[in-house]
Structure formats: C-alpha cells, structure tokens
C-alpha cells in the first residue's frame, strides 16, 4: 500500500492489543436464535452446541421452491391514465381500488408472504445434522463460542474427567462445512449421526462412511422445481464405523471429522455431480489442512478493518447475552460490544455472500440462515429497504466486492423489468417493484398498500455508490446501460401534476404508510411521494454524472437536466415543521411508522445535510422526533444512520442501545413490536431478519467516517462516551482507505491511503483541510 497522507497531530497512548472478537456462552443453545451462524456465502451451518443430542441447522443460499413465472399483468397499462386522472382529482381512495384491481401482479404474487407452495416460492431451510453423542451426561467447564475474526465456532466441556472439544467452520477455501470432534483421552468419541429434513427428500442413501441426499422442491405450479443434493461424510480415527437405521454410527474413536457439502441446480449444474466432485476434492485432507486453508482465505478479508472502542478489556469474558443486557442498561459499561457488533455485521456480509462464485446470490432477508421451510416473508429480497440495507455497510467497511452479488441480481431483474415497464406503462426502459426472488420476479406486489412502489431507482443508488467508492470505470461502463434503462423508464412515465406543474411518479406509495383523505377515507396510493422525488432526482443526477465520466449520451443527459428543474424539491416542509412524506401535507395513518421513507434524502441519499441544507436537517430532526426512536429492528438501524448523518452521535448511540435491546427468542411470525437483538447477536425484527444487523453495523461506521459531502469527515458523529478509540481500514468515496486514532473525543492521528496521488479534503476536529496529497513510497 502506498500512503498519500500521514498526519500526526500529537502523541497518544496505544490500545494494548486487538479487541477480542468472540461471542461467548456458558450454555448450549436452547433456541435457534442462540445457535451460532457460520457461512461461506453458499452454505450455512448453525451448531447448537448441545452436549449429547446436538443439532446443526444447515442451509444453502439458493435453495428456493417455486419457479420462473411471468407475473406481469399485460393489460395494466390500459388503466394507468384512469388511475392518474383519479389522483389528479384527489380521489386517492378510488385510484387505490383501481390499482388493486388492475395494477398489481397477475396470480398469487408472494402469497401474502407465505409463498412456499406458490410459483413465487420461498428460501428455505436445507435440513438438520443431528448428532447423538454417546455416554456424555454430567458436564463441567462448558463453553461455547464463535470467533468472528477466524470464522470458527467451538464447543468444549469436561465429562467424566475427559475434556471434549468440537470445532466448526464453513470453509472459505472449500465449499464445505467442517466439524472436528476431539477429546484428550483416546477412544472417547462416539456418536450416531443422521440428516433430517422436514419434506421433499427423494433419496437418502448411506454407503460406507457417507450419506447422500437428493431432493426436489415444488415448483408452485403443481410440478417439480429446484433439485438439491448433499453429502455428509465421517472420517474417524480409530474405533469403529457402521451404518444403522439411516445413521452413521461411530464408536470409541480417537477423533472424528465430519464434512458437509450441499448445492442446488440454481447454478446450472447437476447438484449430485457437484457435491460428489466437491467431496472428492476434500479427500485425503486432514482437519489441520482444511482449517489452515480456511484461515488463509478468510482472515485477510476480515482483518481489512480493525476497530477498537474499549481500553478496558474486562467485559470480553462476559457471556454475550449478558453483555447485550448490560449494554442496554448502560452503553458506557461496554463500548467494546459496539465494536463487536460492528464487526459482526462485516462477518455476516462475508458469511452470506460468495462474490467469486458464478451466479452467487446476495444475502436475503435471512442472510442465508433459516431453520424453517416457510421462512418469514419468503426469505426473499424485499426492495423497499431490506435488500438495500443488507448492503449499506459493504463499501465503507472495505468489503466492496461483497456488493457484487447484489449488483448482479439488479442486472438480472433489470432484464425482467423491461417486460414490467411494457406491461404497466407501455414504456421503454425497465422497472421493478417491491419484491423479488431468485426467479426474477419484477411485477408489483399483490396489494397496493405495500406492493406499488417502484424499486428500480433505489437499486441504481447501489450501482452508483459502488462506483463512487471504487472509481472503477470498467465497472461503470458495464452497469451504465442499467442506469440508463432506469432513467429512460422514469423519463417516459413521469406525469405532470396539474396543480404544481411538477413531474411525478404515478401511481406510487410512500412505503408502506397511509394517510387520511379530506373525505375521511384512508389511502396509500399517491402521485409523487417524497421518496420517489428524491430517488428520481438522485438517479438523474447519477446518470448525468456517469454519462460525463464515460462521454456518453449528452443529449439525453441534457434533457434529464431540464427535467430536474421540474422534479419536486427533495424536501418540502410541513405545517408542523417536518419533512412532508407526500406532495400533500396529509395526516399519516401511523405517525410512528417503521418506514421513514421521506428521509431517504438524508440516508442513503445526500439531499438533507446539516452542512448544505440546515433547514431541511432541522425538519428531518422533527420528523424523527415524531417517528420516535423505536420501531422494528431494521427501522432502528436506519435511525442510527439518520442521526449519524445529522452529526448527533449521542442520539445515534441511543438508538444503537435500542437496537441491542435483549429480544425474546422463539418468535415465529411477524410482529411490529419486540425488536432488538437475540443472544446470537442476530437482529430481531422480530422474528430474525438480517437487515437490522447490516444496517446497525453500517450505522456505526457512519458515526466514525462520512464522505458524501465532497470531503472526508473524520468522527462526524462520535458519541461522548466513545472518548478514545482507534480504527483502521474504513473506506471513503474516491477509493481512499482511512485510519483514525482519537483521544478525548479528538482526532490525534490519522492516515489516508490510496493507490494513486490526488487531492483530498479532510474535515478533522472541526477544521476543513485541503490537503495536497503526495504519494509516499
Ligand atoms: C418490509 C417491512 C416489514 C418487513 C418486510 C420484510 O415490508 O415493512 O417490516 O421488514 O419488509
């Protein structure tokens, strides 16, 4: 690495050593939300660490029921002008009826979030690996942990004077789950092992030391859909191995290695042939070799960023559930937990996407972890906040390539979305709506109140941000047609509001809030909700900038530049001093609604800023005061980012505390209350939904570093109680890498490095420095 700038403002005391990155437990998991997530972006494994009847929840990220379908209603465009006319007349209630009749998807759509048996399908659990460990009753010294700096979990205890240790990882070098069972006395390892899945196993065979499973999921149209396969192999040292009643039975071994390999035909390969080949690759490799290869592949990724917030290390040995409870009581008692939570978000990014694997999928609502067949909301890709939030942290947290699977999904659905643009508006370009799946669903959802918002513009924010961070022109060239297609769609479909003359989307909603009409009726459908105005504005600006970079489409860019004058302002302030959620200052149905869509312009976009638009920033604060600090898991996470962008670190920390509220385990269905954090640090919507983890982690980064206002801002929202800290390796737009040390709330040392020389503006301790950069060799 070459440094372009190194500034030392004063001396400082170093933090003693790297902060511990372990989740620790002194008991086995009783519930799924206490088990420890391992994943390599393709497969997942969650051991519960029980001493005798141990279970590992298994996952494969592409395992989806359902099948490709064309859910577009090709007659929808015939209703558009009627719907728009009703909206011009202020008859949103009637417009909404018409949207529900003619402007939703054809067919069952997501099946009301329960689409396992519909064409839409759902992401689902792969199965369970069940161990019955022999002769282990009373145990002492029980410990269970997940070390996110090595991506390995461990269970250890003593039973009848013998020390047992079990190690688990999903390899970043091989596509395999690995379990290693050892004891400090020979012949102590004995267990019966079997695989179980609730449904759709077509074949289960045991040969020698290996179980092979084949299955097929329903396609949602009455036939067979996705094929899947797995192999589980046991390699024991010493003792005996036999199979009995669908189980592999190991007795009196000195140690045992269990390998798990799984895949589906989503990747256009025969899953049986694939798992056979993968298992073959593992032949002859010892546990040590497997672990070493995993370490070599994983650790350089994780260690790109280091964050230390605590000099006092005493909390690190406290069991994680207790740490969560303590933090909720008093965040000052354990700043180290915030650093762990931040890194846990990075760990989950690394574990739930595999950017180098062809056709790799991005993390879904569950990441890639699920213990049920019918996952909540189908475990899909919700596009009105959730899938986006899953990627808010990847750029700043130096995992830029982990944006790629999402970007590829965007490209893929953009293709499908060309049909949707035709069907709903008879328009060119592409549009997708609020939900998608691995089958490329692009039509609106089945109900207007949540399914009628377009997502294409918001998705382009990701295409553009990846460029801003990486400055990779070859990449920009590749996604430019996708940006253009989205702009072409909006350009063709925005309508002129007769009252204001503004160009607005229609019909649309502000996710997923409703309002009261003057006639007393309630509705959600509108033209030009604030979020759309911000998104279209952002998209046009990004497209124009991209066109300039690439020297393309001058005339079209000029026409968008003209249109920008007619897009409603990014913010209108209401009578009550808040950011208006809609063009009309309606009274919202739910003033504390979890979605805060009209603050899209504060984060992830950059229209509302205490620096460049202080009045709007004030209105955003009032908006947040009414929305409140609570909400679902992801809603709290978003609010951390809002307060970070408003440069209020104490308020951001207060919401982080709310996000880390100990949540009750075992929730099975959606609830608007009870959000927080489970014992395994998974975010509770509830139930578990991973967006809050990713958003919370991104929020912590945003408190420490921002770069959206044309300069790099060090510690823009540092909470008062995080007086001292050190961070290394965060990324700023422009492809800069940033290290900061601070003491007593002030930066005492920082370093900004980059591959090439250039100018960079840095705001440090309140002073904007225009730094002449020089490359240090
Ligand atoms: C959006 C949110 C819900 C939930 C779902 C998966 O619809 O409004 O709270 O997160 O996605």
* Small molecules held by this entry: alpha-L-fucopyranose
Main-sheet strand order equals: 2-7-8-9-10-17-14-13-12
Number of domains: 3
Number of helices: 17
The residue fraction in helices comes out at 25-40%
Major sheet summary line: 9 strands, antiparallel
Structural class: alpha+beta
Portion in beta strands: 15-25%
Mean pLDDT: 96
What does the radius of gyration come to?
A: 26 Å
Principal-axis shape: globular
Uncertain ranges: 1-13
Q: Report, as a whole number of angstroms, the end-to-end distance.
A: 9 Å
Number of E strands: 34
Q: Which CATH-level-2 architecture of the largest domain?
A: Alpha/alpha barrel
Explain this structure:
The protein is α+β, with helices and mostly antiparallel strands. It folds into 3 domains: 1-30 and 311-379 and 655-777, no CATH class; 39-64 and 126-303, Beta-galactosidase, Chain A, domain 5, CATH 2.70.98; 72-106 and 394-571 and 578-589, Glycosyltransferase (Alpha/alpha barrel). Helix content is 29%, strand content 24%. The protein has 17 helices and 34 strands. The protein has a 9-stranded antiparallel β-sheet with strand order 2-7-8-9-10-17-14-13-12. Strands 3-4-5-6-11-16-15 form a 7-stranded antiparallel β-sheet. Strand 3 (38-39) and strand 4 (43-47) form a beta hairpin. Helix 6 (335-351) crosses helix 17 (691-704) and helix 15 (633-645) packs parallel to helix 17 (691-704). The longest helix has 22 residues, at 404-425. The protein is globular. The model is unreliable at 1-13 (pLDDT under 50).
């Amino acid at each position: 690495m070459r440094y372009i700038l190194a500034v030392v403002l004063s001396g400082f005391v170093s933090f003693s050593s790297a902060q511990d990155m372990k989740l620790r437990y002194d008991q086995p998991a009783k519930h799924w939300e206490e088990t420890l997530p391992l994943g390599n972006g393709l497969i997942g494994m969650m051991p519960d660490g029980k001493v005798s009847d141990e279970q590992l929840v298994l996952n494969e990220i592409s395992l989806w029921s359902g099948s490709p379908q064309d859910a577009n209603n090709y007659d929808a465009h015939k209703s558009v002008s009627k719907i728009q006319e009703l909206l011009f007349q202020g008859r949103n209630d009637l417009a909404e009826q018409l949207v529900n009749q003619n402007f939703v998807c054809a067919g069952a759509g997501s099946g009301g979030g329960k689409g396992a048996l519909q064409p839409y399908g759902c992401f689902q659990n792969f199965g369970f690996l069940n161990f019955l460990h022999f002769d282990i009753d009373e145990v002492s010294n029980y410990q269970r942990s997940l070390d996110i700096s090595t991506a390995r979990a461990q269970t250890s205890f003593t039973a009848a004077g013998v020390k047992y240790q079990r190690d688990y990882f999903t390899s970043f070098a091989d596509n395999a789950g690995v379990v290693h069972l050892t004891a400090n006395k020979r012949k102590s390892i004995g267990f019966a092992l079997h695989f179980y899945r609730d449904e759709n196993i077509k074949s289960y065979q045991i040969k020698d030391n290996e179980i092979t499973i084949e299955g097929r999921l329903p396609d949602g149209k009455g036939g067979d859909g996705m094929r899947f396969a797995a192999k589980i192999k046991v390699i024991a040292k010493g003792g005996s191995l036999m199979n009995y009643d669908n189980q592999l039975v190991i007795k009196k071994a000195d140690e045992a290695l269990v390998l798990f390999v799984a895949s589906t035909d989503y990747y256009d390969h025969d899953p049986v042939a694939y798992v056979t080949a993968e298992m073959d690759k593992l032949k002859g490799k010892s546990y040590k070799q497997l672990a070493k290869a995993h370490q070599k592949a994983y650790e350089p990724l994780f260690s790109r960023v280091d964050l230390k917030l605590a000099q006092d290390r005493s909390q690190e040995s406290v069991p994680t559930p207790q740490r969560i409870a303590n933090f909720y009581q008093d965040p000052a008692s354990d700043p180290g937990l915030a650093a762990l939570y931040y890194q846990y978000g990075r760990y989950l990014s690394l574990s739930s996407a595999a950017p180098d694997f062809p056709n790799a999928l991005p993390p879904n609502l569950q990441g890639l972890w699920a213990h049920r067949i019918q996952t909540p909301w189908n475990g899909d890709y919700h596009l009105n906040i959730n899938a986006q939030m899953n990627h808010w942290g990847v750029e700043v947290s130096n995992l830029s390539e982990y944006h790629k699977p999402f970007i590829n999904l965007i490209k893929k659905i953009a293709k499908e979305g060309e049909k949707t643009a035709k069907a709903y508006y008879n328009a060119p370009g592409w549009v997708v709506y609020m939900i998608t799946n691995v089958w490329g669903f692009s039509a609106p959802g089945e109900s207007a109140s949540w399914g009628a918002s377009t997502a294409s513009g918001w998705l382009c924010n990701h295409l553009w941000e990846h460029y801003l961070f990486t400055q990779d022109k070859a990449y920009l060239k590749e996604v430019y047609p996708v940006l253009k297609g989205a702009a072409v769609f909006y350009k063709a479909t925005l309508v002129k509001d007769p009252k204001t003359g503004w160009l607005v989307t229609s019909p649309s909603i502000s996710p997923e809030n409703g309002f009261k009409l003057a006639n007393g009726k309630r509705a959600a459908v509108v033209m030009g909700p604030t979020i759309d105005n911000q998104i279209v504005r952002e998209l046009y600006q990004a497209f124009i900038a991209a066109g300039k970079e690439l020297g393309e489409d001058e005339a079209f860019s000029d026409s968008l530049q003209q249109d920008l004058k007619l897009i409603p302002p990014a913010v209108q302030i209401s009578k009550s001093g808040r950011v208006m959620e809609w063009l009309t200052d309606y009274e919202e149905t739910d003033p504390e609604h979890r979605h805060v869509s009209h603050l899209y312009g504060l984060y992830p976009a950059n229209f509302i800023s205490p620096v460049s638009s202080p009045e709007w920033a004030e209105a955003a604060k009032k908006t947040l005061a009414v929305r409140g600090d609570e909400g679902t898991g992801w809603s709290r996470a978003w609010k951390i980012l809002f307060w970070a962008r408003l440069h209020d670190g104490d308020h951001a920390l207060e919401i982080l505390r709310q996000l880390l509220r100990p949540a009750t385990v075992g929730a099975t269905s959606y609830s608007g209350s009870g959000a927080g954090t489970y014992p395994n640090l998974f975010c509770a919507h509830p139930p578990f939904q991973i967006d809050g983890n990713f958003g919370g982690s991104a929020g912590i980064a945003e408190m420490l570093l921002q770069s959206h206002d044309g300069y790099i801002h060090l510690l823009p929202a540092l909470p008062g109680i995080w007086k001292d800290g050190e961070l290394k390796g965060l990324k700023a737009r422009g492809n800069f890498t940033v290290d900061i040390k601070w003491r007593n709330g002030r930066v005492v040392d920082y370093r900004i490095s980059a591959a090439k020389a250039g100018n960079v503006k840095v705001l440090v301790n309140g002073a904007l420095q225009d730094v002449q950069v020089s490359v240090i060799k």
